[in-house]
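Re: your question from the hallway

Yes, I did run it. Sequences:
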Amino acid sequence: MRDVAARAQVSAMTVSRVLKEDERVSTATRAKVLAAVEELGYRRNEVARNLRLGRPSGMIGLVVTNLANPFYSRLALGAEQVAEEHGLRLVLGNTAEQVQRERELVEDLVSRRVDGMIVVPAGASQRHLAPDVLGPTPVVLAGRPPAGIEADTVLVDDFGGAHAATARLIADGHRSIGFVGNPPALFTGAERFRGYWAAHEEAGLTPREEWISRGAYDIPGAEAAAHRLLDRTDAPTALFCTNNRITLGAYRAVRGLRSGTALAAFDDFEMADLLDVPVTVVAYDADEVGRRAARLLLDRIDEKSAAPRQPPRRTVVPTHIVHHTGA
Amino acid sequence: MRDVAARAQVSAMTVSRVLKEDERVSTATRAKVLAAVEELGYRRNEVARNLRLGRPSGMIGLVVTNLANPFYSRLALGAEQVAEEHGLRLVLGNTAEQVQRERELVEDLVSRRVDGMIVVPAGASQRHLAPDVLGPTPVVLAGRPPAGIEADTVLVDDFGGAHAATARLIADGHRSIGFVGNPPALFTGAERFRGYWAAHEEAGLTPREEWISRGAYDIPGAEAAAHRLLDRTDAPTALFCTNNRITLGAYRAVRGLRSGTALAAFDDFEMADLLDVPVTVVAYDADEVGRRAARLLLDRIDEKSAAPRQPPRRTVVPTHIVHHTGA
DNA sequence: CTGTTAGCGCGTTCAC
DNA sequence: GTGAACGCGCTAACAG
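Structure:
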């Protein structure tokens, strides 16, 4: 900036004014300054600017558990979109489901003075995200609810979606519906199990324990789990799968049998309509999760300092059922 | 920091030293300072720190065209991984293939003093990324080669992959192989077409113009394009598809016909082995593209100022063929 | 071992 | 309209 000032034969202050589009600069001076800026390829240092203005960095942090999962990359896309509209940049961190990584990332983001952050929490507790330990940086949780703290949250309607999909299977005449899910420790898994169960109860049914498998966390695991359910003499006639990975595994098992076992599945996927068994998927807008999280965060950022801290807000992104009859 | 200093009854400098883990501080003072830090929940401001140290922000920019595409989210994941290992954070921007957005993002990232950036270029020229306009911020291109500038680049072996997949079809006895691709303006599309063509030439074949479609850019478009090829009386017995979206569309067309038309396709996808036609996919490690890009960038960052600017480097991520016989 | 001075790049405040 | 002084939060260089 000094160089520009020297070249334009003005003070640094005048350069600052021109770049800030301050009116009180003569047209002639402005032209001189802009010429110098051009010639030197000068760019104002936004970091120093924010420091001087006492502002945070103009960035929002996004901490996800697994960017390779389309759900989270869509979430990131949605958040980026809203952030962009407000002139904010997104700083990305991937925790690989490790709480320790999450802790470090969050610390680092605060030290970098992000305006706020969106976190998909990896662990059982989010105490380290509490205002009294984190300071004034606003936090919004996405995908999983807060535990041990209060915080704005965006969730997917896990219960409702699982309920509707299961109900659909029941309506289609299925009376023995297996459950292939990830470990119940995961919130989404637990909620989706609740939905599966509730749909049964409402129909006066009780799922048999032998039809329930809750240990799989990848495709081969899910395939094996589905096989164990389907190999029984009283095998279920349909399977409810709690996420896209589980579904792919279960489909492999179902397909091998050619038994026509129906599937219901959380998470839509592109080839769902091309499978050779009936598939009912629970679809939802993952981008919207990111957009809503970003909006909640922006609200908090604007609200800052004002008012006696609003109570935490929670929003649930709806799901809808898509039914494919199977080819 | 002043508050901490006051509370610990030392100077700010001492606090700075303790936090920097400078040895020359008495154990007693250190303890006092750390206690004060703890009590106040103080966190050093990394932004001010970097400013004072004359360093960039400790972040690297990543500008992609479409984060919803798994290729780019995997790329981001790979880059994040390497950045993380070096204590750098990733700042993300999505251009939605708009050059204007890319320009703005790049400008902004430079103003934020990123250490460097990885860009998946959206437009036909990357003049705006040239060192003389961007300044000293290092740039690495990913997925598409530089045009109008010199720059380090990471590419996928588009030509080789397309060549190998097509050759495989030919080896399997196919003599009429259709081409369903995106517009040739895209580098990847052009390269993959070259591979398709070269494999034919080497086998003494020449693809018929009527078997070549190069306009599709989404799934329905690809399905329609494939239908047009397959509805001919001299329909090809196999189709080469230039990317995952195209493949999904083409499969829909192929499947409807039950003609047993074989597919070869760039980009692997999870259900490739479950389709009811033979599918040959060109698979590659998208994470690796991001990792290599990050490494190239880190090299440039380290090299900075030293030496008389090394020549641009280029690396090509290999592909491999996976063949599925069709169920 | 610890404190003081000075300044990273910028903008507010108050002069001229 | 324009400039000088001062400070955002931090630390290198030099004192002591």
